[in-house]
């Protein structure tokens, strides 16, 4: 971790030589650690990475066969006839090809932010590209926040529908036990969320093998039925879907909203790219997951050709009666894994949102000593659990939830297509015709899927939109409130240049030691310093203004993290740059400053001065009063700066201030 000393350089009284043992060892260890974090997946054997990706990335889309075919007939009300079976299978085949194989695997996974994917990683990339255009920057920011909000809504619905659809197999195994479906679902979900605080590292080692068994089972069950009724393979012909669309456009439009359930989870391929790399995910999709899914979907179609009555639960009826109970256990395990991936995704997305300034600080627990990506956020965990249980008790069946599921997924997919189009334009510099032939087509397909899903608005589609609207309001309120508060504090403060000149002319009493003032600004004095000077009438002999700069990249290279400026009169500006996936750690950064030779004697004895703002909502300028109340509540309940940045509590002095916004 290199300390950048700029033109107004610090003159060190003491410089540790480059060959000194302490510095050399520290540099070596830190360089090694950073290399391990940044490139772990490149050094791991490809088969192991593929197995890991199978267990984490494909759980959601891999459990769609539990309900996609059944819901296609239920939601359209069409008869289970050979013609309709071929129509739905043709739609599913081409949706998996166009949306997943072409759009996500071939194109969107190329739009990485330094190797990272996901809604906020893509948002950070697009914001960086559109910064020169304020209008486009603002519009893309709103779209990105909405995509993140839809992901949270999806994270509420996915565990509910996945586990519920698996446990509903109990009605096939033992119909007289159907009254236990709902209580058992609630019990499994509660246990799943309760175990999150212990971390998922050990359990994660089982995810890959279990999902390998799951996809193998999907393929075998489907293949046995296809062999019995090979005519079902005719559905690969796109003419069945096209004829359906042109002869019965309205019914086909409704059907799209049901068959889109087969591609839910496709966004995980992009979101988890940073964990495994693009190559393992692509290989697993093309050579394992996609073929197994198609075999199972067409196997269900073959079963329905032979026995239309099997529509009550075609997935479980694929298996012989003797295997129904083992299949129930395996399906439940697969849905728990699918839910786990989404739950972990909410933690990662929340941390990224905090780093990018869209959410207040929260208490984050690291559940692994070796993997910084394994985190647990208690507030998010229990809030999501409460919402998931409420949804399960409200809808009571996977059929009821299916109407709500497609809206969140297709909405997020549509926004991703728009934002990737911006990347094609501003980063890849593609021609307009090329963008139209790729992103333009994806936008049209996603807009059609979203519109068809919206036909189920009254029967459940409102739920993800309501959740997303609430989250969108929260995210934008925090971002706007922080901007307004920062502007307000800056207007009431004093410029650094003016303050230092005044100190030079009329020096106050300087006491021994180092004072570190955390501040978001570079050009004004923190109010905490002014309060301290006003009440205590002293300044420390060395004053450091410390600013944590969040950048729109996942990780900041070690050599770019610390920048130091000398301001004169023993005042310094210290900038610590972090990415949206970096772990903020101020003591570690200060240790690096000391190791590099900065003559800050007894840096661990420094006093940290923090400002604690109390927000007073008022009518007039700023946001709407109700949003100001929300912001004030979030500010009051945000996690402490001390714990978030790992500052020693016994070295902290907090000075409060009241601000009307």
Short description:
With 661 residues, the chain is an alpha/beta fold.
List keywords for this structure.
661 residues, alpha/beta, Amino acid/polyamine transporter I, 2 domains, seven-stranded mixed sheet, two-stranded antiparallel ribbon, disordered N terminus
How would you characterize this protein structure?
- The chain is α/β, with parallel strands linked by helices and 661 residues long.
- It has 2 domains: 3-33 and 492-660, no CATH class; 44-481, Amino acid/polyamine transporter I (Up-down Bundle), CATH 1.20.1740.
- Helices cover 62% and strands 10% of the residues.
- It contains 25 helices and 9 strands.
- The strands form 2 sheets. It has a 7-stranded mixed beta sheet, with helices on both faces. Strands 2-3 form a two-stranded antiparallel sheet.
- Helix 6 (119-130) runs antiparallel to helix 7 (134-167), helix 10 packs across helix 16 and helix 18 (398-426) runs antiparallel to helix 19.
- The longest helix has 35 residues, at 457-491.
CATH fold name of the largest domain: Amino acid/polyamine transporter I
Question: How many strands in all?
Answer: 9
Average pLDDT taken over every residue: 84
Using the coordinates above, name the CATH class of the largest domain.
Mainly Alpha
Structural classification? alpha/beta
Low-confidence stretches: 1-43
Task: Describe how the helices and strands are arranged.
Blueprint: E1 3-5, H1 21-43, H2 46-56, H3 59-62, H4 68-76, H5 82-107, H6 119-130, H7 134-167, H8 170-173, H9 181-194, H10 201-228, H11 239-247, H12 249-259, H13 267-271, H14 273-276, H15 278-306, H16 324-355, E2 365-366, E3 375-376, H17 378-395, H18 398-426, H19 432-454, H20 457-491, H21 496-505, E4 509-518, H22 527-536, E5 538-550, E6 562-568, E7 571-578, H23 586-595, E8 607-616, H24 625-637, H25 641-644, E9 652-660
Parallel strand pairs: 1-6, 4-5, 4-8, 5-7, 8-9
Antiparallel strand pairs: 2-3, 6-7
Helix pairs in contact: 2-10, 2-15, 4-12, 5-11, 5-15, 5-19, 6-7, 6-18, 7-9, 7-16, 7-17, 7-18, 7-20, 9-17, 10-15, 10-16, 11-12, 12-19, 18-19, 18-20, 20-24
């Amino acid at each position: 971790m290199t300390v950048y000393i700029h033109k107004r350089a610090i003159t060190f009284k003491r410089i540790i030589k480059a060959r000194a043992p302490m510095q050399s060892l520290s540099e070596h260890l830190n360089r090694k650690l950073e290399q391990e974090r940044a490139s772990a997946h490149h050094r791991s054997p490809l088969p192991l990475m593929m197995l890991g990706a199978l267990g984490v990335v494909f759980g959601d889309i891999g459990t769609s066969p539990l309900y996609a075919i059944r819901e296609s007939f239920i939601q359209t009300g069409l008869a289970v006839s050979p013609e309709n079976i071929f129509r739905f299978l043709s739609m599913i085949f081409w949706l998996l090809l166009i949306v997943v194989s072409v759009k996500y695997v071939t194109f969107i996974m190329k739009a990485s932010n330094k190797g990272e994917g996901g809604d906020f990683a893509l948002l950070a990339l697009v914001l960086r590209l559109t910064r020169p255009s304020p209008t486009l920057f603002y519009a893309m920011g709103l779209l990105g926040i909405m995509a993140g909000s839809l992901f949270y809504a999806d994270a509420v619905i996915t565990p509910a529908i996945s586990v519920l659809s698996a446990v509903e197999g109990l009605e096939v195994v033992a119909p007289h036990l159907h009254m236990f479906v709902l209580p058992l679902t609630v019990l499994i979900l509660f246990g799943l969320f309760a175990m999150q605080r212990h971390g998922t590292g050990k359990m994660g080692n089982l995810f890959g093998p279990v999902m390998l068994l799951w996809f193998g089972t999907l393929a075998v069950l489907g293949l046995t039925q296809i062999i019995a009724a090979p005519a079902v393979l005719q559905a690969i012909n796109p003419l069945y879907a096209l004829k359906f669309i042109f002869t019965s456009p309205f019914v086909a439009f409704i059907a799209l909203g049901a068959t889109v359930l087969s591609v839910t989870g496709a966004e995980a391929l992009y979101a988890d790219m940073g964990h495994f790399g693009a190559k393992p995910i692509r290989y697993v999709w093309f050579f394992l997951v996609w073929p197994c899914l198609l075999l199972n979907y067409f196997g269900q179609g073959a079963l329905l050709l032979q026995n239309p009555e099997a529509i009550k639960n075609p997935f479980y009826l694929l298996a012989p009666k003797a295997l129904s109970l083992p299949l129930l256990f395996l399906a439940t395990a697969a849905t728990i894994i699918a839910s786990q991936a989404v739950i972990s995704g909410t933690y990662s997305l929340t941390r990224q949102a905090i780093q990018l300034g869209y959410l207040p600080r929260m208490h984050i627990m690291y559940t692994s000593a070796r993997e910084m990506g394994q985190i647990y956020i208690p507030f998010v965990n229990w809030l999501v659990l409460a919402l998931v249980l409420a949804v399960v008790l409200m809808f009571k069946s996977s059929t009821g939830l299916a109407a709500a599921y497609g809206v969140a997924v297709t909405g997020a997919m549509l926004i991703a297509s728009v934002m990737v189009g911006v990347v094609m334009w501003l980063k890849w510099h593609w021609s307009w015709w090329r963008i139209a032939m790729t992103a333009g087509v994806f936008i049209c397909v996603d807009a059609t899927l979203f519109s068809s899903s919206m036909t189920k608005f009254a029967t459940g589609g409102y739920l993800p939109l309501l959740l997303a609207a609430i989250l969108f309001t929260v995210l934008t309120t925090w971002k706007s409130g922080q901007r307004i508060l920062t502007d307000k504090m800056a207007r009431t403060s004093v410029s650094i240049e003016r303050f230092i000149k005044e100190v030079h002319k009329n020096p106050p009493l300087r006491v021994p030691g180092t004072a570190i003032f955390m501040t978001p600004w570079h050009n004004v004095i923190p109010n905490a310093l002014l309060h301290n000077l006003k009440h205590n009438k002293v300044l420390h002999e060395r004053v450091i203004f410390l600013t944590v700069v969040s950048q729109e990249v996942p990780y900041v290279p070690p050599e770019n993290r610390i920048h130091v400026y000398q301001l004169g009169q023993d005042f310094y500006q210290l900038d610590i740059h972090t990415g949206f996936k970096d772990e903020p750690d101020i003591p570690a950064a200060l240790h690096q400053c000391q190791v590099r030779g900065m003559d800050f004697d007894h840096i661990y004895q420094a006093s940290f001065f923090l400002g604690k703002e109390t927000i007073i909502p008022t009518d007039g300028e700023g946001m709407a009063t109700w949003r100001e109340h929300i912001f004030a509540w979030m500010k009051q309940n945000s996690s402490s700066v001390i714990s978030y940045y790992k500052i020693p509590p016994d070295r902290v002095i907090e000075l409060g201030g009241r601000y009307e916004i």
